[in-house]
Amino acid sequence: MGLVGGGRRAARQRVPGDLSVSGSDEISERYDASVGLTSYEIDFFAKTRNLSAAALENYLATAQAKRSFQTSLISEVANTYFSWRTNRKQLALARATQRSFEQNLALIQRRYDSDVASALELTQAETLVHQVRTQVAQFDRLVRQAVNALAFFSGHNLPEGMTSSLPESPPLNIAPLGAGLSSDLLKRRPDILEAEHRLKAAYADIGAARAAFFPSITLTASAGTASSELNELFDGGSGSWLFEPRINLPIFTGGRNKANLEVSETTKKIRLAEYNRAIQQAFREVADSLAARDTLWDQLNAQQALVDTLDEYYQLAQNRYDAGITSYLAVLDAQREHFSARQQLLSDRFNQLSAEIELFRSLGGGVGSEIARVDRSRAQ
């Protein structure tokens, strides 16, 4: 290979047996070639093998960081899509309600002009119209921003009419979670694998590190809810991490190779701290996701029951007004509460979908085939 404007240097060095990895005398050959600010080093013996192993682990850590980014990107795109879908429904609801409120206002205005309706009823009707108009503008803006976000994620403008052809209710391909889901599943999370590769680059024994820092528990109880073992990892008052690592285990292979001596104690402590933090974050995110998933289902069911009740309440108020039993203020109040409850129901549905997406992300991205694989490995 020709090098323009560069220099070359070759050297041979004898390494005494008490300093070599093999325990016997070695001859190390070194060849440097440089052009400008770039230097290429070729070491044919033990040092290169050790450095290559560390470099490989650092590369694999980078690959896991990329996978972590991809999982987060998938989650963000899905969340943005459901946000767009929810805001479209909110906009349609607000526009329909606006038309209804404006019809009420016109009716009350005529009754007020005929001295049948009160000024209070007229003012209340006007207030409802102004409020719903602001919400129409708000949801129109949110729909447009969601479309812009989807275009940003795709890397180009969405084709004309594409958003109107997107399915309103795509299936969520997330496997249902049964009881007894092992925490071993979290070992495939990209951030934990990245931290493990960083540890390996510092010549750590990953088996010992896992035994010291990784809680071996079940994540789920019946019906896929969070297990008591998972909840007990965190203090109920402060939410702090309660798992005690077994710090007496020999994690780093001290003295086994010369390259390990070149890894500073500070680097080892940093890599261990990063690994411990990644594990804590993984378990906390899963616990939070399962808690949100469980409680949001309850909230969604309760909100649906509230909407059904307020729908009946609105009809009763309208009937009482038609019969001359009550004023139109009762009808306006019932209509406003019914509209507000339907809005909240749409928001709760979006939050429930977001919780499913967050659970997908916190479990490392995709659970179906991976759960089966982890279960098979445990049975072997």
UniProtKB/TrEMBL annotation:
Q: Which GO terms describe its cellular component?
A: cell outer membrane
For this UniProt record, give its keywords in alphabetical order, as a comma-separated list.
Cell outer membrane, Lipoprotein, Membrane, Palmitate, Transmembrane, Transmembrane beta strand
The record describes its membrane topology as: Lipid-anchor
PANTHER family with a match to the protein in the record:
CATION EFFLUX SYSTEM PROTEIN CUSC, OUTER MEMBRANE CATION EFFLUX PROTEIN
Q: What is this protein called?
A: Efflux transporter outer membrane subunit
Does the keyword Membrane feature in the UniProt annotation? yes
> Where are the stretches annotated Disordered?
1-22
Please tell me whether the keyword Transmembrane is annotated for this protein. yes
Principal subcellular localization: membrane
Native organism: Marinobacter vinifirmus
Query: Molecular function (GO) terms listed?
Result: efflux transmembrane transporter activity
Which SUPFAM superfamilies does its entry note?
Outer membrane efflux proteins (OEP) (SSF56954)
Q: Which InterPro entries match?
A: MdtP/NodT-like (IPR010131), OMP_efflux (IPR003423)
The record's subcellular locations are: Cell outer membrane
Q: Which family does it belong to?
A: Belongs to the outer membrane factor (OMF) (TC 1.B.17) family.
